[in-house]
Design a protein that fits this description.
The chain has about 230 residues and is α/β, with parallel strands linked by helices. The protein has one domain: Vaccinia Virus protein VP39 (Rossmann fold, 3-Layer(aba) Sandwich), CATH 3.40.50. The protein is built from seven helices and nine strands; from the N terminus they run ββαβααβαβββαβαβα. A nine-stranded mixed β-sheet has the order 1-2-9-8-3-4-6-5-7.
Length: about 230
Amino acid sequence: MTPYYEHGGIVIYHGDCREVITTLGPVDHVMTDPPYGEETHEGARTGSGQSVLVDFASTEAAKIAAMLAPIRLKRWAILTIDWQHVLPLKQSPPAGWRFVRHGAWVKPNGAPQFTGDRPAQGWEAVAILHAGVSGKMRWNGGGYPAVWIHNKVQGYHPTGKPESLLLEWVAQFSDAGDLILDPFMGSGTTLAAAKRLGRRAIGIELEERYCEIAARRLRQEALPLEVA
Protein backbone atom coordinates (compact mmCIF):
# COMPACT_ATOMS: atom_id res chain seq x y z
CA MET A 1 0.00 0.00 0.00
CA THR A 2 1.34 3.43 -0.95
CA PRO A 3 1.90 5.75 2.02
CA TYR A 4 0.13 9.10 2.11
CA TYR A 5 3.25 10.54 3.77
CA GLU A 6 6.66 9.08 4.57
CA HIS A 7 9.73 10.82 5.96
CA GLY A 8 12.33 10.21 8.65
CA GLY A 9 10.81 6.99 9.96
CA ILE A 10 7.26 8.42 10.16
CA VAL A 11 4.61 6.96 7.83
CA ILE A 12 0.95 7.86 7.28
CA TYR A 13 -1.57 5.62 5.52
CA HIS A 14 -4.93 6.93 4.36
CA GLY A 15 -7.42 4.08 4.68
CA ASP A 16 -9.41 1.75 6.88
CA CYS A 17 -7.20 0.48 9.71
CA ARG A 18 -8.79 -2.97 9.44
CA GLU A 19 -7.33 -3.28 5.95
CA VAL A 20 -4.01 -1.50 6.46
CA ILE A 21 -3.10 -3.41 9.63
CA THR A 22 -3.01 -6.70 7.75
CA THR A 23 -0.26 -5.35 5.48
CA LEU A 24 2.06 -4.28 8.31
CA GLY A 25 4.90 -6.11 9.97
CA PRO A 26 5.47 -6.26 13.74
CA VAL A 27 5.26 -3.05 15.79
CA ASP A 28 6.71 -2.41 19.22
CA HIS A 29 3.80 -0.40 20.61
CA VAL A 30 0.29 0.83 19.92
CA MET A 31 -0.76 4.27 21.20
CA THR A 32 -4.18 5.29 19.97
CA ASP A 33 -7.61 6.77 20.65
CA PRO A 34 -10.35 4.55 19.15
CA PRO A 35 -13.94 5.81 18.83
CA TYR A 36 -16.03 5.79 22.00
CA GLY A 37 -19.50 4.34 22.55
CA GLU A 38 -22.74 5.71 21.16
CA GLU A 39 -23.86 7.20 24.49
CA THR A 40 -20.60 9.10 24.94
CA HIS A 41 -20.63 10.39 21.37
CA GLU A 42 -24.23 11.52 21.77
CA GLY A 43 -23.30 13.41 24.92
CA ALA A 44 -20.41 15.26 23.24
CA ARG A 45 -22.20 18.54 22.58
CA THR A 46 -21.57 22.19 23.25
CA GLY A 47 -22.98 23.88 26.33
CA SER A 48 -26.14 24.83 24.43
CA GLY A 49 -26.63 21.19 23.46
CA GLN A 50 -27.27 22.17 19.86
CA SER A 51 -23.90 21.52 18.22
CA VAL A 52 -22.58 17.97 17.83
CA LEU A 53 -18.82 17.90 18.42
CA VAL A 54 -18.11 14.28 17.39
CA ASP A 55 -19.00 13.61 13.77
CA PHE A 56 -17.61 10.08 13.27
CA ALA A 57 -19.10 6.68 14.05
CA SER A 58 -19.13 5.24 17.56
CA THR A 59 -18.06 1.67 18.29
CA GLU A 60 -18.13 -1.11 20.90
CA ALA A 61 -15.38 -2.74 22.97
CA ALA A 62 -15.70 -6.05 21.11
CA LYS A 63 -15.19 -4.29 17.79
CA ILE A 64 -12.12 -2.47 19.10
CA ALA A 65 -10.61 -5.79 20.23
CA ALA A 66 -11.36 -7.37 16.86
CA MET A 67 -9.82 -4.46 14.93
CA LEU A 68 -6.63 -4.51 17.02
CA ALA A 69 -6.18 -8.30 17.16
CA PRO A 70 -4.36 -8.61 13.78
CA ILE A 71 -1.64 -6.21 14.94
CA ARG A 72 1.64 -8.03 15.49
CA LEU A 73 2.33 -6.34 18.82
CA LYS A 74 5.66 -6.82 20.58
CA ARG A 75 5.20 -4.80 23.78
CA TRP A 76 2.76 -2.14 25.02
CA ALA A 77 -0.65 -0.92 23.86
CA ILE A 78 -1.99 2.29 25.42
CA LEU A 79 -5.57 3.25 24.53
CA THR A 80 -7.67 6.22 25.58
CA ILE A 81 -11.11 4.62 25.62
CA ASP A 82 -14.67 5.09 26.75
CA TRP A 83 -14.81 4.16 30.46
CA GLN A 84 -17.72 1.85 29.62
CA HIS A 85 -15.36 -0.15 27.38
CA VAL A 86 -12.83 -0.86 30.13
CA LEU A 87 -14.46 -3.93 31.71
CA PRO A 88 -15.44 -5.61 28.40
CA LEU A 89 -11.91 -5.03 27.08
CA LYS A 90 -10.41 -6.46 30.28
CA GLN A 91 -12.62 -9.52 30.02
CA SER A 92 -11.99 -10.01 26.29
CA PRO A 93 -8.79 -8.26 25.15
CA PRO A 94 -7.49 -8.63 21.58
CA ALA A 95 -6.40 -12.20 20.91
CA GLY A 96 -2.85 -12.78 22.18
CA TRP A 97 -2.82 -9.61 24.33
CA ARG A 98 -3.34 -9.20 28.06
CA PHE A 99 -5.05 -6.39 29.94
CA VAL A 100 -2.57 -4.99 32.48
CA ARG A 101 -4.18 -1.97 34.13
CA HIS A 102 -6.85 0.68 33.91
CA GLY A 103 -5.45 4.20 34.17
CA ALA A 104 -6.83 7.72 33.89
CA TRP A 105 -6.07 10.92 32.02
CA VAL A 106 -7.19 13.71 34.37
CA LYS A 107 -8.21 16.99 32.69
CA PRO A 108 -8.03 19.94 35.13
CA ASN A 109 -9.64 22.23 32.54
CA GLY A 110 -12.33 19.73 31.51
CA ALA A 111 -15.77 21.02 30.57
CA PRO A 112 -18.20 21.62 33.44
CA GLN A 113 -21.49 19.75 33.71
CA PHE A 114 -23.60 22.29 31.85
CA THR A 115 -26.87 21.08 33.35
CA GLY A 116 -25.48 21.78 36.82
CA ASP A 117 -27.30 18.81 38.32
CA ARG A 118 -24.29 16.46 38.74
CA PRO A 119 -20.47 16.53 38.85
CA ALA A 120 -18.59 16.76 35.59
CA GLN A 121 -16.45 13.75 34.69
CA GLY A 122 -13.08 15.48 34.29
CA TRP A 123 -11.12 12.40 33.20
CA GLU A 124 -10.86 9.77 30.48
CA ALA A 125 -10.09 6.09 30.82
CA VAL A 126 -6.75 4.68 29.70
CA ALA A 127 -6.49 0.96 28.95
CA ILE A 128 -2.97 -0.45 29.32
CA LEU A 129 -2.34 -3.79 27.61
CA HIS A 130 0.72 -5.85 26.70
CA ALA A 131 1.62 -8.40 24.08
CA GLY A 132 1.39 -12.04 25.16
CA VAL A 133 -0.79 -13.65 27.78
CA SER A 134 2.10 -13.95 30.25
CA GLY A 135 5.75 -13.04 30.67
CA LYS A 136 7.86 -10.18 31.98
CA MET A 137 7.01 -6.55 31.21
CA ARG A 138 9.21 -3.45 31.24
CA TRP A 139 8.58 0.30 31.13
CA ASN A 140 10.52 3.48 31.93
CA GLY A 141 8.14 4.95 34.51
CA GLY A 142 9.42 3.22 37.64
CA GLY A 143 6.77 3.35 40.37
CA TYR A 144 4.78 6.15 38.72
CA PRO A 145 0.99 5.55 38.92
CA ALA A 146 -1.25 5.13 35.89
CA VAL A 147 -2.61 8.66 36.27
CA TRP A 148 -1.65 11.42 33.86
CA ILE A 149 -2.67 15.04 34.48
CA HIS A 150 -2.76 17.26 31.39
CA ASN A 151 -5.09 20.00 30.26
CA LYS A 152 -7.27 19.17 27.29
CA VAL A 153 -6.68 21.07 24.05
CA GLN A 154 -8.78 22.53 21.26
CA GLY A 155 -7.67 22.29 17.67
CA TYR A 156 -7.86 20.32 14.47
CA HIS A 157 -9.76 17.24 15.69
CA PRO A 158 -12.92 17.02 17.86
CA THR A 159 -11.39 14.42 20.20
CA GLY A 160 -7.81 15.72 20.16
CA LYS A 161 -5.37 14.71 22.89
CA PRO A 162 -2.63 17.00 24.23
CA GLU A 163 0.83 16.45 22.86
CA SER A 164 2.22 16.63 26.39
CA LEU A 165 0.24 13.48 27.26
CA LEU A 166 1.56 11.58 24.25
CA LEU A 167 5.11 12.74 24.92
CA GLU A 168 4.85 11.32 28.43
CA TRP A 169 3.54 7.98 27.15
CA VAL A 170 6.19 7.71 24.45
CA ALA A 171 8.92 8.40 27.02
CA GLN A 172 7.52 6.02 29.64
CA PHE A 173 6.54 3.04 27.52
CA SER A 174 8.97 3.04 24.58
CA ASP A 175 12.68 3.27 23.83
CA ALA A 176 14.66 5.18 21.21
CA GLY A 177 14.17 3.68 17.76
CA ASP A 178 11.01 1.74 18.68
CA LEU A 179 8.12 1.60 16.21
CA ILE A 180 4.77 2.98 17.44
CA LEU A 181 1.48 2.38 15.62
CA ASP A 182 -1.57 4.65 15.85
CA PRO A 183 -4.40 3.00 13.86
CA PHE A 184 -6.84 5.84 14.70
CA MET A 185 -4.38 8.65 13.96
CA GLY A 186 -6.62 11.72 13.82
CA SER A 187 -4.45 14.73 13.05
CA GLY A 188 -1.20 13.12 14.12
CA THR A 189 -0.21 13.91 17.71
CA THR A 190 1.10 10.39 18.40
CA LEU A 191 3.33 10.66 15.35
CA ALA A 192 4.52 14.13 16.31
CA ALA A 193 5.43 12.95 19.82
CA ALA A 194 7.23 9.90 18.43
CA LYS A 195 9.22 12.06 16.03
CA ARG A 196 10.26 14.48 18.76
CA LEU A 197 11.56 11.66 20.98
CA GLY A 198 13.41 9.71 18.30
CA ARG A 199 10.92 6.91 17.71
CA ARG A 200 9.53 5.63 14.43
CA ALA A 201 5.79 5.68 13.91
CA ILE A 202 2.96 4.58 11.62
CA GLY A 203 -0.39 6.36 11.56
CA ILE A 204 -3.58 5.18 9.87
CA GLU A 205 -6.53 7.51 9.28
CA LEU A 206 -9.81 7.04 7.43
CA GLU A 207 -10.49 10.75 6.83
CA GLU A 208 -8.16 12.29 4.25
CA ARG A 209 -8.56 15.79 5.70
CA TYR A 210 -6.85 14.62 8.90
CA CYS A 211 -4.11 12.84 6.95
CA GLU A 212 -3.33 16.15 5.27
CA ILE A 213 -3.31 18.04 8.57
CA ALA A 214 -0.98 15.44 10.10
CA ALA A 215 1.34 15.48 7.09
CA ARG A 216 1.48 19.27 7.11
CA ARG A 217 2.28 19.32 10.82
CA LEU A 218 5.06 16.79 10.40
CA ARG A 219 6.55 18.73 7.46
CA GLN A 220 6.52 22.05 9.27
CA GLU A 221 8.14 21.84 12.68
CA ALA A 222 7.00 25.38 13.45
CA LEU A 223 3.31 24.37 13.45
CA PRO A 224 1.77 23.81 16.91
CA LEU A 225 1.70 20.06 17.53
CA GLU A 226 -1.09 19.93 20.08
CA VAL A 227 -3.98 17.89 18.81
CA ALA A 228 -4.51 14.18 18.13
